[in-house]
Every structure is written in C-alpha cells, then in structure tokens.
Amino acid sequence: MDLFLQTIINGVLIGGILISLTIGFQLTFGVLHVIDFAVGGWVMLGGYAAYWLVELAGIDPFISIFLVFALFALIGGAIGPLIYHVRTSRYARPDLMALAFTFGLFLLMRGGALWLWSYNSRNVESVFSGEFLTLGPVTIPLLRLSAFLMAIVICLGVFVLLYRTRFGMAVRAVAQNRDHAGLMGVNVKRVSAYVYGLYTGITASAGVLIATIYSVNPSVGIRYTLFAFFVAVLAGLGSVGGVLIAGLALGLMESIVSTYIGTRYSLLVVFGVLFLVLLVAPKGVLGRGI
Amino acid sequence: MARKISRRALLQGTVLGSSAMVLGAPSVFAQASEKVIRCGVVTSLSGDNRFGGNLTRRGYDLWAEEINKLGGIEIAGERYPVKMFYGDAQSRPASGADAAVRLIIQDKVDVLFGPYTSGVTLAVQPISAKYQVPMISGSAESPNVWLPKPAFNFGMIPAVDLTSGDSIKVLAESLGSKAKTAAVVGVDEPFSKETAEGFRNGVQKTNLELLRYELFPANADLTPVISKLKADNPDIVAVGGHESVFINFVNAAVSLDYRPKALIMHYGVTSAAFISQLGEKANGVLGVSVWTAGLPYRDDLFGTASDYSELSFARWGTHPDYTEAGCSASGLVLQDAARRLGKAPPWDQKTRVELAKAIADTDIETFYGPVAFAKDGDHFHNNIKPVPVVVQIKDGKVVPVAPSNASEGDLLYPMPGAT
C-alpha cells in the first residue's frame, strides 16, 4: 500500500513536469499552427540560463525563473515574426517549411549549447534541492511539488489570459480563423509574435525547474521535444485544457507501469496508448484538438 | 544548363593539373619510403564525444612524444620515429569509418590507434580488417566489439561486462558479511545494459542475494525505480549508465530521502564533472576504474603508474584517467610487437599481417598493468588481464578503496548519509 501511494504521488508529480513542458507548445500550435521542434531546445536553454545564473551570480533558480521568463519571452517575441513569415509564406507547403525552420532552430540551439557548455551534464542547485515533505509513508520531493504547482499556476494563468482579457480574445480569434481575425482589426502578426514569446518564456521557465530536478546537457532537448509532442497528441493538438488531463494521465501511466509491470516497458506502454488515441480519438482526450 | 568551357580555360586547367601531379609526385614517393612508423589515430575530435576523444588523443600523443624523445621504436638495433596522423570521427561511426579509409589510403599508415567510443570502433573495425591494418584500441569498452572476433583489432581496456562484474566481486570480498543483498538497475541501451549485466553476473558469482535486476529506458523518470529500491532496501545498489544518468539517479534518490549503504556506478563517477556537479551528494559513491596512479605497475618508458600520472599532468595540465593511460599503453604494445617482428618500416600488407600476429602474442607488464589479449571466447583480442579498482568519492576526491593492493583509503560503508 505504501508503495502504491508513493507510485501515485510520483505519477502526479511527473505529470506536473509534463504539463509545464507542454502548455506553451500547445498554445503556440493553436495560434501559429506550427509544431515547434525547438520546444526541447527552449527547455534546455532555460536550464542552462538557470545554471549560469546560479554559477555566475548566485541567483537561486526560484528567483531566476522570473528573469528567465522575461529574457526568453523577449527572444521568442523576436523570433515569432520570422516563424509567422515562414508559416504564412506563399511558397508550397508553408506548414512543412515552418517545421523545418523550427528543426533548424533546434539544431542551432543544440550546437550552441555544445559549444558553450560542452557535453557534460550540469546540475542546477536550488534551496529546495534534496528537500522533501514526508506525509506518512509517502515522500514528496519539494522540487517536483513546486514544478507541479507551477504547472497548475501556468494553466490557470493561460486560461485567465485567454478567457478574461482582450488580448486573449484576439488570440482565440486568431486561433479560430486568422483571416477573419485580421479583417476584424486584429494585428495577427503581432498577436502571433506575442504568443510565441509567451510560449518560449513559459517553456524556458519549465526548463529551469526541470534542470533543478534532473540535470541539463545539450542532448536533453530531443527528449523533451518528444514528451511535449506526446502530451500534445493525447491532449489533442491545440487544446490547452486537454494538456492538464493528458499530462497527469501520462505521468500516472508511466509511474504505475514502471512500478508494477516493469520500468523497461513504461515508455512502450505510453507510446502504445498514444497510438491508440491517434487511431480512436485523434482530437484528444477532450475532443477539442485540431 | 550546360556551360561552355573556353579553350584558354581548358589549357590553363591542364597545365595546372599536370604541374600539380609532377610537383606532388616526389612527396608521394617520399611518403612511402620514409623511415618512420606511420600511426593513424581515428577518434572523436569534434561532436558530442569530443571531450573523451581528445582524452584518447592525449594518451596516444604522450606515448608518441616520449618514444620519439628516445629516437623512436627500436627494431633490430635501429630506432624508427613514429609520425602521428589524425582522422576526426566527428563522434559518428560512419565518419569514423571514412576517416580510417583516408588514413590508410592517403596517409598510408602502418598501424591504427582506435577510437574513443565503441560505436565508432565497431564501424572502423571492418575497415582495419579489409585493409589488414592492425588497430590497437585504447578506449572501446563494449563487449560487442569483441564478439565478431576481430582479427586486426586489439582492445586495451577490459570490456565493461568484465570490469563491472569483477568490481562487484572485489567489493563483496572487501565488505565480507557486512553486505548480504544487492540490486542492479541500468539504462536499457547498449553500453549501459552491458554494464548492468556485468554487475548482475558479478553479484551471482558472490554470496550476495540479488533482490532486483531491472532496466529502464534512457528517457524514463527515475522516481519509480528509486521508490522500488527504497522498498527493497538492498545493501548494495549497482547502476549501469552514463554520467548524466548517475547525476539524475543521485538527485532523484536524495529527493526521495533514499541513500543506500553502498552505491556503485561505472566509470562516469571518476569524471571531474560528476564530482563537481553533485558536490556533497557525490560523497561516498563508489565507482570502477581499470587503472589508478597508485597501482604498483611500471615499465621502461613511462616508469611507474605514478610517474606516468605526473608526466601526463606536466604535459596536459590534468591528471590522466584510465582512458588516457590505456591509450598511452597502446603505444607500448606496438613498441613490443614491432620489436619482436624485427622488420623495418614501411610495412607492406604481408608484414602488417605478421604484425597483427605479433600483437596478438603480447604478454607484457606496463605502467598501466599487465597486457595480454584473449585468444578465444567472447572477449577475443580484448586485454582481460587488468583487475578493476573500486574507487570511492571522499570529499571531492577519487580514492581507490579496493582491492587491498590498490587501496589508498578505507572503504566507507555504509556511505555517508545512508538511510
């Protein structure tokens, strides 16, 4: 029973990490209709930014996360118009061109990280590193708990932004129909750039927490790109609400399968479920995907 | 659209091309008749594995510099300097194979020194066999390299399944009745899986009870694995993986309030990055090394293991690990085989086959330890002589703790902070 409770907690906390990783990715897909291969790259760079801020300035990741958000939102805001330009170009298959663009961006990030930080893994220490709460037989790592809470806060924040602000209305309008939104006076290019900036800021902030929980090296990006993609597929591509359920479901599944069937089969089962979802319910768990 | 080439351009090209051929010809002939031993190094000088690749290069280069200070390798009373040629594998097996072909065809090397990773070694191995150029691999550790029974490749470092298995035996003997149970986990990928299998086989050869053997995917979250280990509570936990997995494992274990009495991992533990990144949390973690500077080995070129370590430090600014040592010792193997062969370079194909046979018959003592290559079995042409040293991290330093002839400190058991 003790192991079962710990397994459930482990699963929920893994889910929190997956949610924080995917929420921005999902938002940008909804608006720009771009599957951003660079999502793992933003996670990695966020982790490295936190590493540098700890090493060079002694700033704890739980403070630097706000700086990282601001910095990467600015960078994303600058790159957003480029992606918008590629995505709306008149050349054939702009969707594939955008995919190739983000893939190139990802390779650039990885190469840059190798050059700057070498291949060695970097451990990002925080005041919460190694700290945990003990509730009866269950141990809850504080870093993972904070990632979970952050995921919830980000989800709520994104919902408030989307459904309680004029900017959110513009974002939803662009997501529904870019041309019509433009005709209604929405500056589609600017909204797209802001959304991309928001996405990179959120994802790099998730990277800060992920780097403190695990570690960061130039190769981790591809792992997080895959996970973000899997959560997004289960949630339904473009469905922000579905991310919460899909992230928790995948986290629990990974934990339960690892504990009771075998860790070796955990990702196999997760991928198997994803294939089934694609076949049976391609619009995701809430049926709201594209 | 086809472009016309003017007669003038054609004539210019012909004259330039002919001149290049005429001017280049003497150097080609000189290349073939030079009284030097041409050694090709195929390793990862760029890409993901460039750090390790450059370690191998340092090891090979240090040997070349030292032997050239004496005038070169002595063959039948005359000394022949060694000349090093490099091929960058770019951390990719296919590029490694291309680099090996270039070294053999263009640079006409007499012998190859092998790559850093097993993946690149597996790609280069058929090239060395095809052109019958002996290759001495100072680094590759996967047992898969030796399974095809490579006729021209020889490995200095015992395969990881041997070192991990032997290290568990060494550890169990040192702990005696204090440790009764063990669990082995590892990443489900070639090198790490073989390490974990070696640990498991080692446990089965001791009196330890194996409570768990489990592999996990490279991308898996480690909290479920650690929760299960915590529930099992074995005395010794052995982990097969790479440095990043080790860091994640230690972090995840600490965050779940779990530290086993003994935690043994493989070679990544001895890397400066592992220790510096984990800081206090690395304290007490056990690792495996094939060679340390404190071992009582010696040879005529480098002196003792300690002398080699100091020489390497003076040359490169860092103390060598066993990869560098294995690579430098590769040169000693070539020296010994060439001396026994007794034929002056350059070596033609027939002589290279004889050289490979001479290398296969190697049985020498070096600063790196004894070297003799297996003549049959699953570790064909792998140097299976060295006994692994169990090391422990103590206050940021790697201290050999077992076996007794290599020990420089007490084995901390249970490790600091064990739950």
Automatic annotation (TrEMBL), chain A:
- Localization annotation: Cell inner membrane
Keyword Chaperone belongs to the record: no
Give me any GO biological process, just one: amino acid transport
GO MF terms held by the record: transmembrane transporter activity
Task: Supply the InterPro entries for this chain.
Answer: ABC_transp_permease, BCAA_transport_permease
For this record, the Gene Ontology CC terms, alphabetical, are:
plasma membrane
Membrane spanning residue stretches: 12-35, 62-84, 96-118, 138-163, 193-214, 226-253, 265-286
Q: Which UniProt keywords apply?
A: Amino-acid transport, Cell membrane, Membrane, Transmembrane, Transmembrane helix, Transport
Q: Name one Pfam family in it.
A: BPD_transp_2
Q: Which family does the record claim for this protein?
A: Belongs to the binding-protein-dependent transport system permease family. LivHM subfamily.
**Which PANTHER family does this entry report, sorted A to Z?**
AMINO ACID ABC TRANSPORTER PERMEASE PROTEIN (PTHR11795:SF445), BRANCHED-CHAIN AMINO ACID TRANSPORT SYSTEM PERMEASE PROTEIN LIVH (PTHR11795)
Name this polypeptide is given: Branched-chain amino acid ABC transporter permease
Name the species this protein comes from: Marinobacter antarcticus
From TrEMBL, chain B:
Q: Which Gene3D superfamilies match?
A: 3.40.50.2300
Q: Where is the signal peptide?
A: 1-24
> Which keywords does this chain's UniProt record carry?
Signal
Q: Does the keyword Transcription regulation apply?
A: no
Look up and give the organism this protein is from: Marinobacter antarcticus
Protein family membership: Belongs to the leucine-binding protein family.
Domain (Leucine-binding protein) spans: 37-384
Instruction: Return the Pfam families for the record.
Output: Peripla_BP_6
Q: What is this protein called?
A: ABC transporter substrate-binding protein
Among InterPro entries, the record links this protein to:
BCAA_transport, Leu-bd, Peripla_BP_I, TAT_signal
